[in-house]
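Quick one, probably user error.
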């Protein structure tokens, strides 16, 4: 991918539906049946993004090639519980998506680097994400390591 043809920019309000669509594509790509997608997925996603902008310092980045939106990545503060110290502030990266025709060209790497720079700039000391099998190699190349998160399937 020529650096001249790839543009990474901060998302604006009018990009919210695109980000929501990318999140839906991610869910389907993970194997969720299409009939399991909520009827109100667009409304729920845009409401969450509005909340995250106000409360969690949310930011998203858009990848464009020759004017076409081909990918996005979102990030925000990760606040699962009250933080007792600002010396340990986690950021969360989510919704990293690149259209299939544009994959393996460095676009996701560039989006991730922008998200990591943003999180560092707002004081985060760690970046956290949940990797799909497809994304694991990319994240490992960027320095991510398996953590001590434990998961229990409640099905």
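Nope, works fine. Designed sequence:
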């Amino acid at each position: 991918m020529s650096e001249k043809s790839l543009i990474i920019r901060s998302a604006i309000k009018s990009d919210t539906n695109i980000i929501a669509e990318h999140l839906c594509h991610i869910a389907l790509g993970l194997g969720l049946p299409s009939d399991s997608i909520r009827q109100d997925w667009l409304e729920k996603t845009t409401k969450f993004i509005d909340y995250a902008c106000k409360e969690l310092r949310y930011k998203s980045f858009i990848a464009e090639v020759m004017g076409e939106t081909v990918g996005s990545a979102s990030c925000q503060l990760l606040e699962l519980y009250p933080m007792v110290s600002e010396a340990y502030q986690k950021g969360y990266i989510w919704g990293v998506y690149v259209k299939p025709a544009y994959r393996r060209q460095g676009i996701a790497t560039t989006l991730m680097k922008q998200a990591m720079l943003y999180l560092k700039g707002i004081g985060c000391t760690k970046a956290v994400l949940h990797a799909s099998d497809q994304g694991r190699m990319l994240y490992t190349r960027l320095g991510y390591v398996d953590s001590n998160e434990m998961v229990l399937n409640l099905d």
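The chain has a mean pLDDT of 92.
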